Task: structure prediction
Amino acid sequence: MIDVAWLCAIAIRSVYWLVLLACNFLGYSTLWARREIKQREREEDIRRALKTPAHVAVLINNRSLTKDSLQSLLNVCLGANIRRLTIYDPVSDNSFLADDLSIFCKSKRIKIVIGCNSSPMDLSSYRLIVHLLSVDSGRATLVEACRDLSSSSTPITVGEVSTYLAKRHSLYEPEVLIQVGSIPSLSGYPPWCLRVTEIIPVRVLPCTRYAFEECLEAYSKREIRLGK
Result:
């Protein structure tokens, strides 16, 4: 598969070198062009060093999610090769956005799942899976999971709980959670799914490439310790 971002970087760098040659030929100063090339190279080095999580969660506190902001976020996630995006809003029901973005999602091979869906789905053909959660997906879901697992004869382990939540409710553990807003609270996000998750607080939804990469850079600098 062709890496479009890599091709764009090569094309931009080639243009700058052509400008340098033209400036040298005409006798103009090339200092500005050299600075720009170095800046671009530093940005590319940072981008290559970023760890790309397969699953990103976004917690929206005291903010509204609009069609345009969600579409921008989905485009950014596609560009960053994110495979699964979970959006949790404890106040608003954003299920209407699935209909508003249906044409866009179909063209981009994006699947939007609403709520804790227990029906099996084949998601292998999609580039990005988006899970829209509301406050109903929090405590009640875990209570049901505990009740069902406690009545089972099999031992209750970490793996059993994670598998149950994934199969029955499509609740997966994200590597990173982006906490949007000024309220320092998880607001009822299913706590089991955050047991090994890195939390990145931000003021506004990172729906631009630069803002999203800042979140990934912060995540990449974290030292994740599992049981240490």
Remarks:
- The chain is about 45% helix and 15% strand.
- The first strand starts at residue 55 and ends at 60.
- The helical segments are 4-26, 31-49, 67-79, 96-100, 102-108, 139-150, 158-169, 209-220.
- The CA atoms of residues 26 and 133 lie 60 Å apart.
